[in-house]
Fold:
Amino acid sequence: MTAKKQNRLWFLYGAVFITFICIGIFAGSHHEPWADEAQSWLIARDNHTLAGLLYAVKYEGTLPVWHLLLKVFQLAGLDYGHIYIIPLLLTAAGVVILFFTDAPVVAKVMLPLSYYVIFQNAVSARSYAMVFPAMMLIVLFYKDRYKAPVRYHLSLFFLGMSSSYGVIIACSFMLWDFIMMLRVKTKAASNRKFIITFFATGLL
Structure:
């Protein structure tokens, strides 16, 4: 690909990103949070110790990573009316990562403006807002997962920590990797570093 064509593509990606941000801010500022979004915010707000927060989230059906993230933004001074900023920032990070992957250009242009990404992830303040950036990290690192298994498995770990949905998806990736390790004539079966990071991630 010529430098001129590459520059045109990045100009296109920049336009897509700016459009994504503008739509996300408009939709987020007009979005009325649902009860479960408010509940997560209140759990983070009303528990001032880690032990209290861990106790409060045990019936939430998800790990407390989202609530801890909300707590950080609350301590930074964010008010509830601007809760949409958190998923918007997370999804924006995922969109930037997408631009650096080997995904087709049409996917890089259309995916950030799709309903799932621009509303379900970027506007709805739920724990699965972390799923999209984690998935994009996996897409970015998957091709070289045997050469650099640590960053690949850290991406799987991040995905698993994001939400119950993330746990299912991460376990699906790991099940496939485990099957590959059982097959003797594969890179997974002969890569000691990959096997070690695989089981370390599984234990975590």
The mean pLDDT is 91. Residues 83 and 101 are 29 Å apart (CA to CA). The radius of gyration is 19 Å. Residues 34-79 form one domain.
